[in-house]
Write a structure and sequence with these properties.
By secondary structure, the chain is mainly beta. The strands form two sheets. A six-stranded mixed beta sheet has the order 2-10-9-4-5-6, with no helix packed on it. Strand 4 and strand 5 form a beta hairpin. The chain is globular. The termini are far apart.
Length: 117
């Protein structure tokens, strides 16, 4: 059974940092690109960032470039999203997704990130 389990998100102040993780069960993690998506209140889903299967290449949406860093540990079947310089506009439900561009078919349950003073 495939499961993508995100860590708990949390509350951060503007300018602060949070780190998300996603542990994958049920498929060969190291064989697939992975990505993060988010959905802000009242808005549609957005692709945030993707990373290739071996972690050698990573890609970012313009609105997080330079602030967020995606990474993975294939030995632990885990993907990470380090979020720095957070803005209130980053408030959203964040999802771990299989596939480089949220196109692999498997989604986590989502974790809430709130940026507020």
């Amino acid at each position: 059974q495939v499961q993508l389990v995100e860590s708990r998100g949390g509350l951060a102040q503007p300018g602060g940092s949070l780190r998300l993780s996603c542990v994958v069960h049920g498929f060969t993690f190291s064989a697939y690109g992975m990505s993060w998506a988010r959905q802000a209140p009242g808005k549609g889903l957005e692709w945030v960032s993707g990373i290739t299967s071996n972690g050698g290449d990573s890609y970012y949406a313009d609105f997080v470039k330079g602030r967020f860093t995606i990474s993975r540990d294939n030995g632990k079947s885990t993907m990470y999203l380090q979020m720095n310089s957070l803005k209130p506009d980053d408030t959203a439900l964040y999802y771990c997704v299989s596939g480089l561009y949220n196109d692999g078919g498997y989604w986590g349950q989502g974790t809430q990130v709130t940026v507020s003073s």
